[in-house]
Design brief:
Number of strands: 8
Shape: globular
Strand content: 25-35%
Distance between the termini: 21 Å
């Protein structure tokens, strides 16, 4: 993980779960991560089976120049990455495994910004539909932030995170020291899961 916010959030989530696959929503105290709240979000599954933003930090909303609370997670993605984003999220929810992804944000003006996305599962908690804790942050804040909104996201690279994800049986998206291959314009790390027609791993 490259960004300080994603590293801090992962460490907090990892401590909170202990020996469990994932912590529950009730284990997450915003006061504990107040220094990175601007880059964090919560996703919940509603009754239409869509996963929507329950909360989104101020810096995330500034990237899109609007409040994204209530919006569907897949609505932020480009058409070419939308299916992959759904499968990415399904992997987190179904297998209780965290994911970190390299993402490219685009604006209507042709500007681009490199972002890091972190998705971490949350366990069922007394009927709560909040299922994912995440972070989204630019590796280098763009000069145009606040003037030109990001209009869509493009998935570039991804891998599972968590020291014990191999032991828990989650698929392998590549080990940190492996060199990625370029396939169909994506950087792909070797592993065993297919995320869509253009992003089959190793």
């Amino acid at each position: 993980m490259k960004h300080a916010s994603t590293r801090s959030l992962f460490e907090y989530w990892n401590r909170g779960r202990g020996r469990r696959r994932a912590p529950a929503r009730s284990d997450i105290d915003p006061a504990d991560i107040r220094h990175i709240l601007g880059d964090t979000f919560l996703l919940s599954a509603d009754f239409t089976e869509e996963t929507r933003f329950r909360l989104a930090g101020t810096r995330i909303c500034a990237l899109f120049a609007r409040e994204i609370k209530g919006e569907a997670f897949d609505s932020l993605w480009s058409e070419s990455s939308r299916l992959n984003s759904k499968e990415l999220l399904a992997s987190v929810l179904d297998e209780n495994a965290g994911l970190v992804a390299g993402v490219l944000g685009h604006s209507h003006e042709g500007d681009r910004v490199e972002l890091e996305l972190l998705l971490l599962p949350l366990a069922f908690d007394r009927g709560s539909r909040v299922r994912v804790l995440g972070a989204l942050a630019p590796l280098i804040p763009p000069y145009w932030l606040g003037e030109h909104p990001v209009t869509d996201l493009e998935l570039r690279t991804l891998r599972h995170v968590g020291a014990d994800h191999f032991k828990l049986g989650a698929p392998d998206f590549g080990r940190p020291n492996e060199e990625p291959q370029t396939k169909h314009g994506f950087l792909v790390y070797s592993g065993g899961r297919k995320l869509g027609p253009d992003t089959q791993t190793g």
